[in-house]
Specification:
By secondary structure, the chain is of the alpha+beta class. It is built from five helices and four strands; from the N terminus they run E-E-H-E-E-H-H-H-H. The two termini are 47 Å apart. The model has no long low-confidence stretch (mean pLDDT 84).
Length: 185
């Protein structure tokens, strides 16, 4: 779809719901099972809005949000409430995208740098050529007979064995305050 773009990178519809179904006597059951359940529970109106964001504010595959509301008010949502919900969707989308982007970025940094270094980066402590002394351990371990095992079982089974082996190590290391930065081999 070709939506107009706001200055903040949002791809906006005209402010109207992406989907609206009155769940009153005119509602035709069977279109969406979920809406049938809402009607059974006393809902009288359903609104859904979708807001996509431009690539400049995305991290990962999330392209925006879809949010929906129901009401049990006798006449459904009045136009003023529909307009209010349409008006808050860009801010809600931005807050949601910020939250998920922050979580994803923190996970990415922690995965590749370790918790301590990730915390420093997130705090803005990024200065080249500045060193900080830390306590560290380099751990070497080996699976006895791994070459023989990898020659006699399927690649899927070898991968499963390595994942189980790594999981036990990582859980124990992290339980004692350590961080695993990478596996080599």
């Amino acid at each position: 779809e070709n939506f107009p773009q706001s200055p903040f990178g949002f791809l906006l519809r005209s402010g109207q719901p992406t989907l609206r179904r009155r769940l009153d006597a005119t509602y035709r059951r069977g279109e969406f099972e979920m809406l049938d359940r809402f009607q059974d529970q006393g809902a009288t109106d359903y609104l859904a809005f979708s807001v996509r964001v431009g690539e400049t504010i995305r991290l990962g595959v999330g392209e925006g949000i879809t949010a929906s509301w129901t009401t049990d008010a006798q006449n459904g949502f009045p136009n003023t409430q529909v307009e209010l919900l349409a008006g808050i969707m860009p801010a809600l989308t931005l807050a949601f995208m910020l939250r998920t982007t922050h979580r994803d970025a923190r996970t990415l940094l922690t995965t590749y740098l370790g918790q301590h270094a990730a915390d420093l980066v997130v705090a803005g402590n990024i200065v080249r050529v500045r060193a900080e002394a830390i306590r560290a351990v380099v751990w070497f371990s080996d699976l006895v007979g791994f070459t023989r095992i990898s020659d006699t079982v399927s690649p899927d089974r070898v991968l499963e064995l390595l994942n189980d082996y790594a999981q036990v190590q990582v859980e124990e290391i992290e339980a004692h305050g350590g961080h695993v930065l990478k596996f080599i081999g």
